[in-house]
Amino acid sequence: MVRTMVQLTDEQVKALKKLAKVRKTSVAQLVRESVTIYVASSAVTAEREEKRRRALAGLEKIKKARFKDVEGKTDISKNHDQYLEEIYAA
Questions:
Q1: What sections of 1-90 are H helices per DSSP?
Q2: Residues 27/20, Cβ–Cβ less than 8 Å
Q3: How many CB atoms lie within 10 A of CB 50?
Q4: Considering Cα of 50, then 56, then 59, then 64, what sign does the dihedral take?
Q5: What one-character DSSP code corresponds to residue 74?
Q6: Which of 8, 45, 52, 84 could be stapled to 12 by a disulfide with Cβ–Cβ 3.0 to 4.6 Å?
Q7: Are the CB atoms for 87 and 65 separated by under 8 Å?
Q8: CB contact at 8 A, 70 and 83
Q9: What is d(CA 8, CA 25) in angstroms, rounded to the nearest whole number?
């Protein structure tokens, strides 16, 4: 483990000490657990943002595609995967 110095407000220290007493653990352990949870949630957020970015890029590609090949067709709801595949291949 690496020793790290952190500055906390008086309120944060009081809350941590109270919680540590209730949970019968140390303030340091609570801080380690909190950092672990924060880092994990940040990774999930980054992954979610990457998925969002990719989805938007896909929508932009569809938006820019020429739909003249499917104009007038009545089977788009049934064969949309095929048409999208053709658009992406172009």
A1: 10-23, 27-64, 76-89
A2: yes
A3: 10
A4: negative
A5: S
A6: 8
A7: yes
A8: yes
A9: 18
